[in-house]
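$ fold --in a.seq
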Amino acid sequence: MDPTVSTADILLRLTTVVVAGAIIGFDRGTRGRTAGVRTVILVCIAAAGAMIEANLLLSVTGKTTESFSQMDTLRLPLGVLSGIGFIGAGAILKRGDLVTGVTTAATIWVTTAIGLILGAGYFLLGGVVTGITFVVLALIVKLESLMDRQHQAHVTVDVREDGPTTDRLRTIISDTGYKVTALAITEAENRRIRCRLTWHSREMASDVPPLVGRLWREQGVLSLDWQPIDAGEHAD
C-alpha cells in the first residue's frame, strides 16, 4: 500500500468500489434480498473509506525514541471488518426450523473485504474477488437448482377412529419416496400422527409435494399440516 495517496487515486478507488458494489448488489437486488444495490454499495464505500483513511495516515505512523505511544492505522479497517458482522447478523432470520439470510450476510462480509482491498489500491485483486463473488452469487445458484438435495419436513395428520391406520400412512409415505425419521402418535377423540420426513429432490422443500394430496385423499383424514424445515435454503 503506497503511503502517498493523491486525489486522483482516491477518486479512482472510490469509483471502482461503487462499480464493484453495484455488480454484486444488482444480483442481490434482482432476487429481492434484504441487502440490495444501495446497501451493498454503501457497505463497500464505508470499507473503502476506512482503508483510504488508514492509507492517508501511514505517513504519520511510527514512533521516535521520545514517544510513548504508537499509532496502528491498520486497526481502523480491522475494526470495520469486525463490526460489519453486526449488520450481517441482522440479515440472518430464524423462524422455527427455517433459517434464511445466511448468503446475504456472507455477501455483506465479502463486500466489505472488497471495499478494503480496493480502498488500499489493489485493483487487480479487488477485480478478481468481485468477479468470483458475482459468479458464485449469479451462476452457481443455477447449478444448485440441478442438484438433488436432502430436504426435511414435518407432517401432522389427524384421522378419525375409522380412518387409515398408522401402518397404512407409513406405507403411503414410503411408497412416494419419503423416509420417516421420527414418529409420534397422540390418542384422543381423534388420532394425531406427527412425522419427521427426509427425502432428496431438486425442488424446494416449500413446494407442496404430491404426498400431501395423496394423504388428503385417504378416507377418514380430518386435517393435514405440512411444515418444511429447510424452505429458505434455495431462496437465500
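$ fold --in b.seq
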Amino acid sequence: MSDFVILTDSSADLGADMAAQLDVQVLPLSFTVQGTTYHNYPDNREMDPAAFYAMLRKGELATTSAVNVAQYTEALEPLLQGGKDVLILAFSSGLSATYSSSTVAVGELREKYPDRKLYTVDTLCASLGQGLLVYLAAKEREKGKSIEEVRDWVEEHKLNLCHQFTVDDLHFLKRGGRISATTAVLGSMLQIKPVLHVDDEGHLINIGKARGRAASLKALVDKMEITAIDPKEQMVFISHGDCLADAEMVAQMVKDRMGVQQVYINYVGPVIGAHSGPGTLALFYVGTER
C-alpha cells in the first residue's frame, strides 16, 4: 500500500469499523444540543445517534460547527512529523466551512514541512456520498497509487458521486431555510415529501417531490436506475436518520431492481441530521451525473 494517510471528517458518516477497514483517519465535527457540545466521532463515543434523534423528536434543536484550522493543525502535525504524507478529503464547501479551514491549515503546514506532501480536496459531497468517495479513494490507494494519483482520481470522479435524499419532517428544512414555512405546513398536511440531491457545486438542492413516504423512497431508486453506472459491480451506500427499516427496504429495492450485491448502511450523523431531521433517507452510488 502507498505510504500516505487519507484524512476525512465525520460528515462522511463512516462508522468506526468501516474507517478502520479502510485505514482512514476521521476528524470529528461538533454539534451542540441542550447547551452541551459533543464531538461526532465515528464510534459515537460522546452520543449515540439514536439518542440524538430521540432528542430531535422531542423538539430539541441542535447547532453544528465545522472542523476549524486549529483542529486540522493538531491532527496533521504529528503525521507530518512522523514522515507521513496526507491527503485530506473534506466535507463539501457548499455546505460547510470545513474545507476552507483545511486549506488554511495546509498552507501553513506546507511552509513548516516543505519535504512532506500535503493536499486537500473539496469533495463537494456530504454524508455517505463523501463516505463513498473516501471508500473509493482508499481502494485506489490499495492498488498502489501515489498520493498525487489518488488526489487526481478523486478530482476526476467526485462529480460522479450521486446523492439522492428524502426527508420525513419538512420543518427541519424550513429551519434551515431550504423551504418556506407555508410550504412546510402545506406539505406536511398533504404528506408531500421532497426529493433532494447534492449538486455539482456541493449544495443541497430540491429536485422533486413525492406523495407519501413510500413514493419518496421509490423515487430515490428510480433516479439511481436511470443514472447508475454498472450497479451490479458497485458498493452502494445508504444513510438514515434513525429509520433503519426504511434503509433496509431501499437496500432491498436496489438489489431486486438492479442486481446490486454490496450495500453499506449507517446513520446520518448528528452534524447533518441536525438540519435534515429524523427520517432522513439518502442513497449514494456512482452515476453518469449527479
